[in-house]
Amino acid sequence: xxxxxxxxxxxxxxxxxxxxxxxxxxxxxxxxxxxxxxxxxxxxxxxxxxxxxxxxxxxxxxxxxxxxxxxxxxxxxxxxxxxxxxxxxxxxxxxxxxxxxxxxxxxxxxxxxxxxxxxxxxxxxxxxxxxxxxxxxxxx
Length: 140
What we know:
By secondary structure, the chain is an alpha+beta fold. Helices cover 56% and strands 16% of the residues. It contains five helices and six strands, in the order H-H-H-E-E-H-E-E-E-E-H. The strands form three sheets. It has a two-stranded antiparallel ribbon with strand order 1-2. A two-stranded antiparallel ribbon has the order 3-6. The chain has a two-stranded antiparallel sheet with strand order 4-5. Strand 4 and strand 5 form a beta hairpin. Pfam families: HK97-gp10_like.
């Protein structure tokens, strides 16, 4: 029996596991996936001054251990209130908008939740395609 092909494959697999080759090839693919998500989230973000929309960022990819992680963040102080909703005191005058508040609760816009759900399949397809290409390039 000739095991030379298997031995060659095992050697490549061992070398790939010990090097950063796969991670290095996947890092830009992960960044692109984050950018795809940001594009959809920004499109769903309500605009008053535009500040909330401008603050969306992709952070990473980061490499904790044997993982690649991309974070999607918005550090605008009121981003979570717009995303998830918030309570307010009816009758209170708000000079910034020049009106009195009417409702006890303001519903969230859920731009991140809904945007991520919308791009989940295209992002997963993009990641799978990138992973397949990265693996193929390592083993060819």
